[in-house]
Each structure stands twice: as C-alpha cells, then as structure tokens.
Design a protein that fits this description.
alpha+beta; 34% strand; globular; six-stranded mixed β-sheet; 17% helix
C-alpha cells in the first residue's frame, strides 16, 4: 500500500517590524531578505556600491529597505517600507516601520493589518519607552502574535543572562497589556545570528530562528467566517442600451461572505431586501467573500449611496451616534474635549464632536491618568465621540476592519487620530459626558 504526501498550499502572513531608533529594524529586514535569497542580483549590487561609496567594507543591508534619500542620509527609517517575498513554505507582506517617536503614526499604519509584529530591542539598552509604546500599540491593534527580537547580541558577548532579563521584563509587560503571545528570539541582524540560520554563538538557545517562526506561526487572518460587511463605495448605473435598468452597488467585502438570495439590511437606513445577483470581475457568481471587490444587485430599489453598509439581516450591527473608543493620537496638534472633527468609518465620513477624554494611558506603569483634557502626539487614551449621523459600528475586538475609524481635521484634511471601537487593554472608570457645546451639537 503506497501513500502520497501533498505539499500544503502556501499561506500569506502579513507582519510588521517595530522598535526604537537604531535597534536594527532595517538591518534585520535586509538580512531576512538577503539570507532567504529574496533579493535580485542587481539590487544587491546597488547596495554594495552605495555601501562602498560610504566607506563601508561590507554591504549595508539596511539600504534594501531605507529607500528614501533622507533615510539613507540620516541612517533612519522615516516612512513605512513594504516588502513582498516568499519561501517554499509561505508568502509574506512585510511592513518595516520607523522607530522615531514622531513617526509612531507610521507604526500604527503598518501594524493595523498585521498578524504578527516583530519588536526589536537593542540588547545593550533593554526595554525603553518606545519599546513599551510599540508593545501597547500591538496590544491596542490586537495583533495576534508578537516576536521579541533581542538584537545586537554580538555586542554583549552573546550572554544568555542579558537576553533572559530583557525577555522576562518585556513579556511581563506585554502580558499585562493583554498581548496573547510573545516569542523571544536572541539575534544579531548584522552578523546573521538566528535570523535565517541558527547561531553558532548561542548554543544555550534552542528555539526557532526568526524566519522559521515566521514560516510556522499559525495564520488566523481568515475573515471569511467573521460578520459579513460590505461598505458601499460606488453606485453603478450605466443606463446604456445593453444595461438600461442595471443598478449595482460596488465595494470591497470587508469581512465574511455574501450569497445570492441572502436577506440583507442596508445601514444606517435599516431597509431590507434580498441579493438578486453578485458580479465579480464582470461575471456573475453565487457567492463572494472577504477582500473580493464585487458589485451587488438587489431585488428591490432602495436608496443606497456611498458610505452605506450592506450586512446580513440576521447579523446586523447596532447603529449609534455615541462611540467610545481607544485611540492613538498621531497629529502634532492636540486633540481636546470639544474638538470638532470628521469621523471616517469605512467609506462613510460624518461630522463629530469629541465629548470627553476619560483617560490617558501612562506607558511606564500602565496606569490611567483620568480626564487629561487633551491627547498630544503619540498619546494613547480613551475618547467619547458624538456623531452627527448614526453609524453601524462593530467592536474592534470582533472586527478590525469595521471596528476602526480615523478622526480628520475638517479644516485641512489632516489625520488626527486612529481609533478602535470598544474596550481594549485600557478600561477606564465610566464618567459623565461633558456638557454640550455650541456649534456642531448633535
């Protein structure tokens, strides 16, 4: 009797890197790409030439990701750099995020869709404030897996005691935040220890390399079984001789799946009907699921426009004008009580007022500073918001796509704050809403 073994289909892992300044994020990414043979020959030659012109003996692998001129001149990462690579076991989308405090907003962007975050720590410096901020953001964004990469072990003589102390301190802090899983790995990105190949200098470590862990960590980002949500982006009405009565509602499915004949409800109006057809890439299909861009046709003519949300009638989220959320403030200007903003949720943008800021998170000891009155750049806190129109919002714990929003300055379009609806690791005491202000009073 013979048996055959089929190779499993490769899966996709989205992950982000984070860490304080000069902890070696870009070097780690460069080493990961180089040692996994995921860069082209001409790319490596360009890096070697650039490194030689700067007087460096070997190639500076950080240049593989630091592509902006200002990044190369200053030796820092400023913007999120996305890299796509693959091994026989898995495909990867990597977001290399900056370490500077003023670029924390970029880390929020890079980690918002990640299933795993690699947080680097310089073994010489240990856990610093920016490390704690990145751990807090990973917990706030509900990233399922966190890798603690203790870098530059070559500069502390590969001592196990240094690694163990850092891993213990960080893990205790992360678990208190509610991070579900921390995997600590001692590495030297510059020398290549435990990045792709096991280190010959740390025989006391018996765990996986960074790449081995990335290839084997369970991927749980399948949203096809989540609450089905379709934000309407565009109404298609060609009114041509070929399609005189065609009226479709186009958008990308944010979560779950939709099927022809299914009873649906359009929010915030609350009107219900059935799906008469689904077009995908110009062809009719019976079912469509998460991330597919589709056009939905309905049995009844309903007033639907951009910003509406199509959901299954049996699984519709509540609509509300009062939103309480945990936020990361990313703008230079402070967010204050009474601040008039625009709130963008999915494809819908509405006027809103910040009614209260119940608390701000103190990163050192995870205490809550009550009623700070404002949040400044990079602060994490709780806010209460009143919107001009009802919004169908999910809890961020249930849906990272439809449980998130951003606050926008209505005067110039600047993004002020990234918000996550519902409870998070920060659970402040309930407080009374501030009194209504004149102006945008809902």
């Amino acid at each position: 009797m013979s048996t055959t073994t089929e190779l499993p289909e490769t899966t996709l892992l989205r992950f982000a890197t984070a860490g304080s300044v000069d902890d070696g994020k870009s070097t780690l990414v460069g080493r990961l790409l180089h040692d996994s043979k995921s860069i082209l020959t001409d790319q490596l030659e360009a890096v070697e030439r650039a490194s030689a012109s700067r007087g460096q003996e070997g190639p500076d692998l950080a240049l593989l990701t630091d592509g902006l001129r200002a990044e190369r001149e200053q030796g820092i990462t400023i913007d999120v750099a996305y890299r796509y690579f693959a091994t026989p076991r898995r495909r990867f989308i990597l977001a290399d995020t900056p370490g500077h405090v003023q670029y924390t907003r970029n880390m929020v962007t890079g980690a918002s869709t990640a299933e795993l975050t690699v947080i680097l720590i310089d073994a010489r410096n240990g856990v610093v404030e920016q490390t704690r901020r990145h751990a807090a953001l990973a917990a706030l964004l509900r990233v399922p897996h966190v890798v603690l990469a203790v870098n530059k072990m070559d500069l502390v003589d590969y001592r196990e005691s240094v690694f163990a102390a850092i891993a213990e301190e960080f893990t205790a802090y992360a678990l208190e935040l509610g991070v579900p899983e921390v995997t600590a790995i001692p590495i030297s990105a510059l020398a290549g220890d435990n990045v792709v190949e096991p280190s010959a200098h740390m025989d006391w470590y018996g765990g996986p390399t960074v790449l081995e862990h990335l290839e084997t960590v369970p991927v749980t980002h399948d949203l096809s079984h989540c609450h089905a949500r379709l934000p309407v982006q565009y109404v298609i009405r060609p009114q041509t001789a070929e399609h005189p009565d065609y009226r479709g509602y186009a958008g990308q499915i944010a979560a779950g799946s939709f099927r022809v004949g299914e009873q649906i409800t359009v929010l915030p109006s609350g009107r219900s009907t059935k799906i008469a057809g689904i077009d995908l890439l110009g062809e009719p299909v019976d079912v469509a699921w998460t991330t597919q861009s589709v056009t939905v046709l309905l049995e009844d003519d309903i007033d639907i426009s951009r910003g509406d949300l199509i959901v299954p009638s049996k699984d519709a989220p509540p609509t509300t004008q009062d939103i309480e959320a945990t936020v990361c403030h990313v703008a230079d200007a402070a967010l204050t009580v009474g601040h008039r903003v625009l709130l963008k949720h999915g494809t819908r943008t509405v006027k809103a007022i910040v009614k209260d800021i119940p608390s701000r998170l103190t990163l050192d000891d995870l205490s809550l500073h009550p009623h700070p009155g404002q949040l400044v750049a990079n602060d994490i806190g709780r806010v209460k918001i009143r919107t001009a129109e009802p919004l169908p919002v999910d809890s961020y714990a249930d849906s990272r796509r439809t449980g998130s929003f951003i606050l926008i300055d209505p005067s110039d379009g600047t993004t002020l704050t990234a918000g996550m609806v519902g409870q998070s690791f920060a659970s402040p005491e309930p407080v009374k809403d501030a009194s209504d202000d004149d102006g945008w009073d809902f």
